[in-house]
From TrEMBL:
It comes from the Eukaryota. Transmembrane segments: none annotated. GO terms for cellular component: zeta DNA polymerase complex. Pfam families: HORMA (PF02301). It comes from Paramuricea clavata. This is Uncharacterized protein.
Length: 114
C-alpha cells in the first residue's frame, strides 16, 4: 500500500507532466501562428485528438524541452503562479505576451513537495 506522501508525489508529478506537455504544444503553436520561425520547420501532429503544428527542428525542440524541464520542479512544488511567453522584435522589445496563469487546486495544497 502506498503512503500518502508517495501518492502526493505521484499526483503532483503527473499534474506537472500534463501541464508541461500542454505548455509545449502551446509554445509550438505560438511560434507557428506568429511566424517566429518558417512554416517549413513545422509539421502537423495530433495532440489531445486535435491537429496542431509542432516544430521538427531539433535545436528548437531541445531548447523548448530544456525550458520545460527547468520549470517542472517548481510546478511540482506549486511555486509557479504564471508562465509568460514573450514575442520580441530584433531589439528584444516586447511585441506580444502570452501569459499562462497556474492555479493549484486547494486539494493539491497538502500534496505539495517540501
Amino acid at each position: 500500500m502506498e503512503s500518502e506522501e508517495t501518492q502526493g508525489f505521484e499526483t503532483t508529478n503527473v499534474a506537472a507532466n500534463i501541464l508541461c506537455e500542454f505548455l509545449e504544444v502551446a509554445i509550438h503553436l505560438i511560434l507557428y501562428m506568429r511566424e517566429i520561425y518558417p512554416a517549413e520547420i513545422f509539421e502537423k501532429r495530433k495532440k489531445y485528438n486535435v491537429p496542431v503544428q509542432m516544430s521538427c527542428h531539433p535545436e528548437l525542440n531541445q531548447y523548448i524541452q530544456n525550458v520545460l524541464h527547468s520549470i517542472k520542479p517548481c510546478l511540482e512544488k506549486g511555486e509557479v503562479e504564471r508562465i509568460s511567453v514573450v514575442v520580441t522584435d530584433k531589439e528584444f522589445c516586447p511585441l506580444e505576451r502570452f501569459v499562462f496563469e497556474i492555479e493549484t487546486p486547494p486539494e493539491f495544497s497538502s500534496l505539495r513537495l517540501e
